[in-house]
Specification:
By secondary structure, the chain is mostly helical. The protein has one domain. It contains 10 helices and 3 strands. It has a 3-stranded antiparallel beta sheet with strand order 1-2-3. α1 runs antiparallel to α7 and α2 crosses α8. The longest helix is centred in the first third of the chain and has 19 residues. It starts with a helix and ends in a 9-residue tail after the last helix.
């Protein structure tokens, strides 16, 4: 699947979630940046979309802020969402993840605003708390919303199954590399680096029994995505 097709499908997935989120009771609002940390993860197709946005909007200077953030300890996943679902479905042990990393601010954040907001990755889009986490110190997300979030994360990874998954900082520096991004465009990239992990196709979708009926419209919308030649 070529990159333009992947980008078009990604846009459709984002729209499905935007439509879903319109009906949610969300406390998140402008300048609320408590969840905007450097521990956000994303796929390479999302990073590529951000790279195109930075270049077209003359914001490539933001890479300097991202590169500076490499000195900070950040969450670097050991297992992707689809691999996690597969391991759980098989009843196998899941690798331990380091969840005790400090929540420093996202390197892109500017005056509590996101300079890439229109193209922010799904890992940011799905931060939809029912309460103001700045006041409470934590987020509160409806369990069904978490199910929808996991489902869309699986589909985004599946679309980019030939790509990679990692921390926002690592992915953005990857897509900035002309050598690596050239191989990614040609689908000839065999390995990214030691801090990113290979994406996986969907082999198992894990849905809580209580959400299987309620999630059907979202699942149907995802399975019905079709891209016309005008979008490629």
């Amino acid at each position: 699947m070529d990159l333009n097709t992947k980008l078009a499908i990604l846009d459709r997935i984002y729209k499905i979630y935007n439509d879903f989120a319109k009906g949610l009771d969300i406390a998140c609002k402008r300048y609320c940046a408590h969840c905007c940390t450097y521990n956000v993860t994303m796929t390479t197709i999302e990073g590529y979309k951000i790279a195109l946005y930075l270049e077209s909007n003359g914001q490539s200077d933001l890479y300097a802020k991202v590169r500076k953030a490499t000195s900070q300890k950040r969450f670097q996943p050991k297992v992707s969402t689809n691999r996690l679902a597969e391991l759980c479905e098989q009843g196998k042990d899941v690798p331990d993840e380091d969840s005790g990393i400090n929540r420093g601010a996202c390197p892109l954040l500017t005056d509590n605003e996101c300079p890439i907001y229109p193209v922010r990755p799904f890992g940011c889009r799905c931060f939809v708390s029912r309460i103001g986490c700045m006041e409470r110190g934590y987020a509160e997300i409806d369990p069904f919303v978490l199910t929808v979030n996991d489902l869309l994360l699986q589909y985004i990874e599946h679309v980019d199954k030939d790509g990679y998954f990692g921390n926002l900082t690592d992915v953005l520096l990857f897509v900035q590399s002309q050598v690596k991004i050239k191989s990614y465009r040609k689908e000839t990239l065999k390995t990214a680096d030691t801090v990113m992990i290979k994406n996986q196709p969907i082999k198992a979708i894990l849905l809580p029994p209580e959400h299987k009926v309620k999630v059907k419209p979202i699942l149907h919308a995802l399975q019905s995505i079709k891209i016309s030649k005008t979008h490629i």
